[in-house]
Amino acid sequence: MTEANWSGTHSYRAERIHRPRSVEELQEIVAAAPRVRVLGSRHSFSDIADSGELVELDALPADIAVDPTAATVAVGAAVRYGELAQALVAEGVALHNLASLPHISVAGAIATATHGSGDGNGNLATAVAAIELVTSDGELRSASRGEPEFDGLVVGLGALGAVTRVTLDVEPSYAVRQRVFEGMPWDALLDHFDAIGAAGYSVSVFTRWGQDVDQLWVKSRVTDAAEDVRDELFGAAPATVERHPILGLDPVHCTPQLGVAGPWCERLPHFRMGFTPSKGDEIQSEYFVAREHATAAIEAVRALGPRLEPVLLVSEIRTIAADRLWMSPQHGRATAALHFTWRREPDAVAGALAEVEAALRPFGARPHWGKVFLARAAEIAPLYERLPDFVSLVQRLDPRGAFGNAWLHERLLGA
Question: Is 79 inside any structural domain?
Answer without folding.
Answer: no
